[in-house]
Write a structure and sequence with these properties.
- The protein is of the alpha/beta class.
- It has two domains: 4-170 and 214-239, 3-Layer(aba) Sandwich (Rossmann fold), CATH 3.40.50.720; 173-210 and 242-319, 3-Layer(aba) Sandwich (Rossmann fold), CATH 3.40.50.
- The protein has helices at 12-25, 40-45, 56-65, 79-84, 86-106, 141-160, 186-195, 215-227, 247-257, 270-276, 284-290, 298-314; strands spanning 4-7, 30-34, 47-50, 70-73, 111-117, 163-169, 171-173, 200-202, 210-214, 237-239, 243-245, 263-265.
- The strands form three sheets. A seven-stranded parallel β-sheet has the order 3-2-1-4-5-6-10, with helices on both faces. Strands 7-9-11 form a three-stranded mixed β-sheet. A two-stranded parallel ribbon has the order 8-12.
- It is globular and about 55 Å long.
- The two termini are 37 Å apart.
- Bound molecules: 2-amino-3-ketobutyric acid (AKB).
- Residues 78-79, 117-119, 142, 169, 171, 182-184 line the site of 2-amino-3-ketobutyric acid.
């Protein structure tokens, strides 16, 4: 990886990934892109450009002009927003990925890394320790695009020899950039409300188990996969897991530090999405092939989240 392009750089994962890439490979070697206005930290660690992944000509021009050899394609519409406008989710997620892969093929990019999700699984997949190779029958448009996206990545590898790599993320919990439009977003919202001394109304029931991961582990996972020796990879798509949590588990953990935190439950359409997903996923292939090992458990994460959010709150940068 010498010259790196990150799409969706202003999103929850993209914004933290850019900072790590900038620190590791140098600001001059990281181009970040999005259709949103970048936070100042993104411009501190990368060169930012306005780029819509649906604009394939501009994408190709930027790849050529910047001699890009690696693309982290992070731009996507998530599950909850996707159900509000499935056609738009299809366009951004499918056409966006197709444009990235086509530009990569034509302009001799070497590697494309893009996240997939636990959303590839549907209600008929095993709920606990869900393996990679099982039935993939998602009930959301987001899940449909992630299944098709995984297959497209595999196709470009088989047909054109492009080095494509993908990992199925669980819900990601982070303190820096808010998640946007996911079903697992309630977890981050809980921490923010707790720090602001506000009660929270959760949109899934307290006993709904889902797989989660703390952002530092999520960033390490994608970087480790991107940098793994190609001959170590036995597959192009890996499950990665860290914690199986219910909303009640997160509330209990927060209450160890903020005992007065209150949470109510009013499930909405996102309950059905959450119930269609696994409770935990089997990531033994990632552990075996490229040494994946999560470092944060629930209470470590809670302490770190609360410290970081309190710091931001004191600087008045935590918003609801
Ligand atoms: C979402 O909730 O849509 C995402 C995901 C699990 O991929 N966080």
């Amino acid at each position: 990886m010498k010259k790196i392009l990150v799409t969706g750089a202003c999103g929850q994962i993209g914004s933290e990934l850019v900072v790590h890439l900038g620190k590791k490979f140098g600001k001059e070697n990281v181009i970040s892109s999005d259709i949103k206005r970048p936070a100042s930290i993104i411009k501190e660690f990368s060169t930012f450009m306005y780029l819509n992944v649906l604009d394939t000509h501009m994408l190709a021009r930027e790849v050529v002009e910047n001699e890009i050899d690696t693309i982290f394609h992070m731009a996507a519409i998530l599950s909850a927003t996707g159900e509000q406008n499935p056609q738009f989710a299809y366009e951004v997620n499918m056409q966006g990925l197709m444009n990235v892969l086509e530009v990569a093929r034509r302009k001799e990019v070497q590697k494309v890394i893009t996240p997939s999700s636990i959303a590839v699984f549907g209600p008929d997949a095993p709920k606990e320790m869900t393996p990679e190779d099982t039935s993939l029958n998602p009930t959301t448009m987001y899940g449909v695009t992630k299944v098709a996206g995984e297959k497209l990545m595999q196709y470009y590898h088989l047909k054109y020899g492009l080095d494509t790599r993908s990992l199925r993320y669980p819900g990601i919990i982070s303190s820096e950039t808010l998640p946007g439009g996911g079903t697992t977003d309630f977890a981050v919202d809980m921490y923010i409300h707790a720090v602001l001394n506000q009660p929270y109304t959760c949109f899934v029931t307290e006993d709904t188990p889902l797989p989660f991961m703390y952002m530092p582990d999520a960033i390490r996972a994608i970087l480790e996969l991107a940098e793994a020796e190609e001959d170590k990879l036995t597959r192009r798509v890996y499950n990665v897991h860290a914690m199986r949590l219910t909303p009640a588990d997160i509330v209990d953990s927060i209450r160890k530090y903020i005992p007065e935190f209150r949470c109510e439950y009013q499930p909405d359409y996102r309950q059905d999405i959450a119930e269609s997903w696994p409770h935990s996923i089997d990531d033994s292939a990632a552990r075996k092939d490229w040494g994946w090992l999560p470092q944060y458990n629930l209470d470590d994460m809670t302490r770190d989240m609360l410290d970081k959010l309190r710091e931001k709150h004191q600087k008045k940068v935590v918003h609801l």
